[in-house]
Amino acid sequence: AVAAAMRLGAVLSALRPALPLLLGLSLGCSLSLLRASWSHGAAEERCLAPGPPALPARGAPPEAAEGRPVPGHEDFRPRIVPYYRDPNKPYKKVLRTRYIQTELGFHERLFVAVLTSKATLNTLAVAVNKTVAHHFPRLLYFTGLRSAKVPHGMVLVAHGDERPIWLMYETMNYIHQHFGSDYDWFYIMQDDTYAQAEQVKALVTHLSINQDVYLGRAEEFIGGDEQARYCHGGFGYLLSRSLLLKLHPHLDSCRNEILSVRPDEWLGRCIIDFLGITCVSQLQGQHYHTYELAKNTEPEKKEEEEFQAALAVHPVSDMTLMYRLHKQFSRIQLDRVYQEIQDLQMQIRNLTALTPAGEAGVTWPVGINAPFLPKSRFEVISWDYFTEQHLFSCPDGSPKCELSGASKADVSEIIESAVEQLNRLYQPLLRFSKRQLLNGYRRFDPTRGMEYTLDLLLEAATQKGHSRVLAKRVSLVRPLSKVEIIPMPYVTEATRVQLVLPLTVQDLDFVANFLDMFAMNTLDTHDNALLTLLFIYHPYDAQRVGQVDVFAGVKAMIGELEKRYAEVKIPWISVKTEVPSQVKLMDIVSKKHPVDTLFFLASVWTEINMEFLNRCRMNTISNWQVFFPVHFQEFNPALVYRGEQTASSNTDFLRDGHFDRHSFAEACFYNSDYMTARTKLAADILDQDEVLESMEVFDVFLHYSGLHLFRAVEPGLVQKYTLRSCNPRLSEELYHRCVLSNLEGLASRSHLAMALFEQEQANST
Length: 765
Prior knowledge:
It is a single-pass type II membrane protein. Belongs to the chondroitin N-acetylgalactosaminyltransferase family. This is Hexosyltransferase. Its EC number is 2.4.1.-. The protein is of the alpha/beta class. The chain is built from 23 helices and 27 strands. The strands form eight sheets. Strands 3-2-1-4-9-6 form a six-stranded mixed β-sheet. Strands 22-21-20-23-26 form a five-stranded mixed β-sheet. Helix 5 runs parallel beside helix 12 (319-352), helix 6 (164-179) crosses helix 10 and helix 14 (511-523) packs parallel to helix 16. The protein is extended.
């Protein structure tokens, strides 16, 4: 018995760790069987129950009992649209929208209409435009009659009649016709109304777009129904897209049947009579706060909560009062933001103290990302040294340059901010004033912003008048603010690209490969691209062209391509010069093409492909932006592989090479933009053609156009290694840039070190 008890105890001790698992499995299986029996029983009862079908729950429509979607909720049910192609009809390529937002039917958030008049267009309307217009995504001004000159920067719609009711009727029609399908919310205000733009935008983000909304300051009709309300036009009002769509068919009836003196009353009566919707000041938990200004009001002294919470203020009698209101509300909003920042920083400190890192885990400044920690020496972000007069890390690579422009303004602002923060911290005990900036360091950290370290020579004065000069080191951060998407003009991928290829005698060995790649990637694929060749003859070769043409072989290749592709013509232009200036060559090509031509200035080592041509089309915008891609230059295979087989797998793509930032040979730009910049250049140099030999097309756009210069690495442009000939007759800068491109294109540091090591070993043996 004792032995059996011992064996039983051993078995129980062995099974004890598995008891929770066994109990969990048993309980789960029991519950599953019990649930299955209940479901089976309920199914049998439904199948065997005689009589009519069960009625839906109270308040539910009959469709709910039959499994059909409930009216009003179709938008929330996924629908599968079957694809059907009629075999009797020819196949037609489906044109997709450029943006997924258009295809999915998304709308913009808010449209704002400002009702003005000819008398106040140049006063109150201008004040509205300068204070709040740039905060709204889209804002238009509507008036009956317009003045001879429209103020700059304002989009004005004139209806031709100053009658208030007619102006409101035409405005609602115009909004429905041009913007009814593009926006979810429509905010109507007068030019004597000050609206807090950010508060209005925040309001619409908290309202549901599926309801008919008529929101504003509710007012009673004179002698009308006590329950009916209209929205006072002076304080602005908000209409939803669904309400506007329902209201539009009834606008003509309202114009003919409803008599009113005030346009806001007329609109409110129209909405009530035909839609049965009255104005409300509160909806879905959101309040539309307003404030009515009294005469001779001073906004700077308004501290009551009703004023600070107002979304709209009315009436605003003049421009000065509008600007004062904007200044006061901006100050109130700024104070709120600072208070929110302080509250968030306090919460971050309290929560960080509970983490494993403790208080040591709090970053400075609180709430800003920690500094970037490099994983290797190649990721270290270098500091730029500066003083109040000079910068010791210049954009052109020189060791020292004068501090000017935006950099000088940045340094001055940072020094003033440092002294101000010190005074705020130590006053009233000490008062600091700047003597001199001893040392300054700054660097841009992409994870947090611009960092500064300043060594300041300060004079500290006490309350008793004693002063002392001391040095103080301070650290500052200019954090990255809210990221904005810059609106760009619409471009398409159907634009024809005109390739321009300059050729010299030294380039003859590489022309065949260029033409083969051009034929394979553009002609065979029927890409919308053309090619023009520039044959650059040396004066000696030009004199002998009748006897020996150095470009005869290239012309024969072009003839073969034109025979193979009957619809293709490849023209060439012959130029005689000793110094093949890029600007002079483009002057010749520009005159032979229309102004709307999209040029791609290529080099003979470029391997053309459709991927890059599409990016050339997308990144080049007429009268807006030019594109200078940075091609990928492969290293010298003799130094990289040293006799080994060249890697050709896809995983090694863009590995054994570098992006050649010294080369500006490739460029995408429109002929009209080049001609405009070239005209300004001609007026500046005054027929001094020798200046053109020291310039490239990039310099023309950089110094003589106001366009965006988009300079970015381009993985679609890959060039094989070749030692390029640098023309010593070009300017010193261009020649030096060409030499640097050749040297840096030899190999990486590790490959060069290995080659030197092997050479030293070979010499030692």
